[in-house]
Amino acid sequence: MAYEIPVTQARSELADLINRVVYGGERVIVTRHGKPLIALVSAAELKQLESAAQEAPERAIGTASFLTEVPSSGGEQSRFGLVAEYGAPSGPYGS
Questions:
Q1: Domains and their CATH numbers in the chain
Q2: 10 and 31 in contact (C-beta within 8 Å)?
Q3: 35-40: strand order across its sheet
Q4: Rounded Cα gap, residues 58 and 41, in angstroms
Q5: Cα gap 16→28, rounded to integer Å
Q6: What confidence score (pLDDT) does residue 84 get?
């Protein structure tokens, strides 16, 4: 859970907010007109977030590389109400 504070109040309490984040392990959300504007997190937590963000695409690519195509059976088409089937293009513009 994060502590929310308006930007006008955060200006006057910046030192206290820094202490809450660094020593209290809190996350602070600074708001303007009730909407989140910025988040204060410790440098250590920022490093963890950046590290996780860099690893996320690698995990997604690794996972996607294991996908294989499974041919559909004719029974599935009638079961799910499919009435069209893809075929190679033909005619003057197809091969």
A1: 3-57 (3.40.1620.10)
A2: no
A3: 3-6, 28-32, 35-40
A4: 25
A5: 11
A6: 57
CB-based contact 26:1 (threshold 8 Å):
no
pLDDT at residue 82 tops 90: no
The confidence band for 52, taking pLDDT boundaries of 50, 70 and 90, is confident
Q: C-alpha distances in angstroms, 53 versus 1, 2, 31, 57, 64? A: 21, 21, 24, 8, 17
Q: Where do we find the tokens 């708001």?
A: 31
Residue pointed to by tokens 């004719």: 74
Which of 60, 74, 19, 11 lies closest to 38, judged by CA?
Answer: 11
Q: Is the pTM of this model over 0.85?
A: no
Q: How many CB atoms lie within 10 A of CB 10?
A: 20
Q: What's the pLDDT at 95?
A: 54
Residue 9 in this model has a pLDDT that exceeds 70:
yes
Per DSSP bridges, beta strands 3-6 and 28-32 are parallel
